[in-house]
Amino acid sequence: MQTLASAARAIRAFPTDRHFGSVAAVRGALIEIDGLLGSARIGSRIAIECEGGTVDAEVTGLDRETAHCLSFNDPHGIATGTRADLLQGQSVLRPTDQWLGRVVDGLGRPIDNKGPLPVGPEPRLFKADPPAAANRTRVGRRLETGVRSLDLFAPLCRGQRLGLFAGSGVGKSTLLSMLARWVETDIAVIGLIGERGREVQEFIEDDLGPEGLARSVVVVATSDSPALMRRQAAWTTLAIAEHFRDAGRDVMCLMDSVTRFAMAQREIGLANGEPPATKGYTPTVFAELPRLLERAGPGGPGQGSITGLFSVLVDGDDHDEPIADAVRGILDGHIVMSRKIAERGRFPAIDILKSVSRMLPDCHEEEENRLRLAALRHLSNYADMEELVRLGAYKTGSDAEVDEAIRLAPAIEDLLKQRKDDRGSVAHSFARLAELMTETSQ
Questions:
Q1: The pLDDT value given to residue 358
Q2: Calpha distance 228→68 (Å, rounded)
Q3: Helix orientation angle between 400-416 and 366-391, rounded to the nearest 10 degrees
Q4: What dihedral do alpha carbons 150, 153, 154, 157 form, nearest 10°?
């Protein structure tokens, strides 16, 4: 009887009708489907049968009787007239604790050759709404990152969201891997959006390492993935992080990079006929950015938090380009990595004079803030006079503060140098900074 009851429930749950249309045209990445009038919705999933197998697609636009779709995989082999089935229900993700240590694609499918993923009991939407502002708790205590530049001058707090602004090749991925291994949170969820394919395995094996991977879930959509898959990977990263946050965990969410998410959204918008606006980015790019980034942060009462670090690949080292400018206005601070500092051989190449944490000064003790401000003053004085000093145009004794800055700046720079296996501590970093300030003032 129990078997019959289960069969009856399955029959009742089976959809009574199925909707399908046919491919009317393929224009570049855009697939136009007719015959789904009144049944297709924005975000609906479509399965298109072609000679190479099934192509998964999503409805991204509607124009009278035509549904505009983009595919998650290569649309090679699609012909006009091909049947397109509208899939019932919403696409969901079902993460569990057994996902830790695994690598998945933008749709949450395993790509690490470790077998199928366990399915959790609770479904979670890929694109969820951020928590209501009135229901969120406050940003929590300071987190120890192990990176001296951050712990001293741009601290990270539990539930805070920081942007990491950098050009290509200045050590951004290495810094992210240090944070994934060292920040004192329960779990790390890492989204590699638009990464070079050859670098993914290097990041997982060398930078992240077995210790970091064991407490992480890595979501990957490489640069050759369709725009829809790259956008989806960003949503999946936040959806997995939200699952652990709602279970009461403190999560570190790292995304590299938000710029490639924005580029993917731009491709989708242009394919749907949106007008290009600032530097070719469509209006939906600037609408989607806050919806994505606001999903990180503190949860509600009884929940955990998502501490977010989102990298921004600045175009041509221009930190005022549209995506960098938009992201900087949304997040709770920004870390600037400088090519000039990297060329001097100091890693992490964080420009502490241009980096800001909006949790300051409250997250530091009074004495820590005194040391931080004094060090920043000396570094700023040295930066103003650096060219004159190098040219020999500055005469020692002309200004006492500049003289002290010239003595102190190299020592601070040396303190901030770190290898990727050299983990720092907040207490030791401030003790060393206090020692340097005392030595130079004598």
A1: 94
A2: 13
A3: 110
A4: 80
